[in-house]
UniProtKB/TrEMBL annotation:
Full protein name: MoaD/ThiS family protein
Matches recorded under InterPro entries: Beta-grasp_dom_sf, Mopterin_synth/thiamin_S_b, Sulfur_Carrier/Prot_Modifier, ThiS/MoaD-like
Highest taxon in the source lineage: Bacteria
Organism: Nocardioides astragali
One Pfam family hit: ThiS
Length: 91
């Protein structure tokens, strides 16, 4: 299943400056594995040491936050757009 992954500015050093890349996988976990195979180290910036989404990183499959779906087991149908969005804090 080919999907499109939107990469935030802070992680574009891993993708050679690309803001959107393609990856394969039928779940978010599989997509992140494929992404890391092509762009070594990027998965470690999205997942913590326990293999869960980092607290301040939001991931959307389509328009839905995966934390309200099946997290890493969220299905990623062919053609889906995945967005990785770092949380912004401040005041």
């Amino acid at each position: 299943m080919a999907v499109s992954v939107r990469i935030p500015t802070i992680l574009r050093t891993y993708t050679g400056g690309e803001s959107e890349v393609s990856a394969e996988g039928d779940t978010l976990a599989a997509v992140l594995d494929d992404l890391d195979a092509s762009y070594s180290g990027i998965k470690g910036r999205i997942l913590d040491e326990a293999g869960q989404l980092r607290r301040f990183v939001n991931v959307y499959v389509g328009n839905d936050d995966v934390r309200f779906l099946d997290e890493l087991a969220t299905a990623t149908p062919d053609g889906t757009q995945i967005s990785v969005i770092p949380a912004v804090a401040g005041g």
